[in-house]
Amino acid sequence: MSISISKDCKILLYADDSTILYSHKNPEVISEKLGKELESCSKWLIDNKLSLHLGKTETILFGSKRKLSKIRNFDVTCNNHTISSQNCVKYLGLNIDNSLSGENFLNNIIQKINSRLKFLYRQAKCLSEQSRKTLVTALIQCHFDYACSAWYAGVSKKYKDKLQVLQNKCVRFIKNTGYRSKVDHNVLNSIGYVNIENRVKQLRLNHVHNIYYHHCPNYMYSNFTKVRHLHHHFTRNSEYNFWVPPVKSQQKDTFYFNGIQDWNMLPIKVKKIKKIKEFKISVKEHLTKSYSAASSDSFLYY
User: Fold this and answer.
1) Helix (H) or strand (E) holding 81
2) Which of 296, 235, 230 lies closest to 264 in space, CA to CA?
3) Of 108, 245, 263, 287, which sits most exposed with the smallest number of CB within 10 A?
4) What are 81's strand-pairing partners?
């Protein structure tokens, strides 16, 4: 038996992190609806000899900064207990702010990477280049990669530049060069790295490959429609392409839209590769070759 909620709500369950999502233009309607759904969940839990910890329950109202500035109070009441609204919540390791700007999350990433890099620099004299690369990959690269397919496209250029600067610092540590030394495609290629933008694109394409060849959960297919399922009038390379949906401005930052765009731009010989291990190698080689001739102005050397 599962928790029953209204059809116009969505519930996300992962281990001990659970979320109820509801969308409406009126915040008062959202507050009332969430209160009823929480009471329904609380009753179900009690009937099954469980309980809802309202002290750890948080609410957050998403919207543009302009609209949020007009809202003074947004409180949800459940079983006569008031759950106050937060400007930022932590879900599955991500600090999500109410305007979805990603600033809180990225500031946290930047702080963690800088602190770990300082620690590694204190041990640098005892480490070989291979050891330094292994430590950076294990302790720092994971912060660059975590859920980047979802959040990277939506962050501002200022934060994208900061992430590239951080990667350059890591590369200089691995290569044991000066803090003002140049970091370009040749230096990145020498240690098997690609810049931040292409690293995100590489991981995003790996996800899309699993979607295309049906190696992922069913819910991932909802926004991905193959061209051949719509019609049989193929254009160049369209046999292996996804249909590009019409989107509004904010939807251009979503994973599915950027994933479709990146996938459709791949050479057909790469898209034909079914084995994920071979695909990962081919995609990295393609991205390295495609951008090795790019202007050096696209890199930040400081």
Assistant:
1) strand 81-83
2) 235
3) 245
4) 78
Give me the residue label for tokens 């900061």.
162
State both tokens at 240: 């292996």
Q: Which amino acid is located at 274 in the chain?
A: K
Element (H, E) at 226: none
| Per-residue pLDDT in tens (0 to 9) along the chain, 302 residues | 456 677 788 888 887 778 899 999 999 999 999 999 999 888 888 888 888 888 888 999 998 888 888 888 888 999 889 988 889 988 888 888 888 888 888 999 999 999 999 999 998 889 999 999 999 999 999 999 998 998 898 889 999 999 999 999 999 999 999 888 999 989 999 999 999 999 999 999 999 999 999 998 888 888 899 988 887 666 666 789 999 988 887 788 899 999 999 999 999 999 999 999 999 999 999 999 886 655 444 444 44
Helices (H) and strands (E) in the chain, counts: 12, 6
Backbone angles phi, psi at 59, to 5 degrees: -125, 150
Question: pTM score, two decimals?
Answer: 0.83
Collapsed DSSP state (helix, strand, coil) of residue 17: strand
Largest interatomic CA distance in the chain: 64
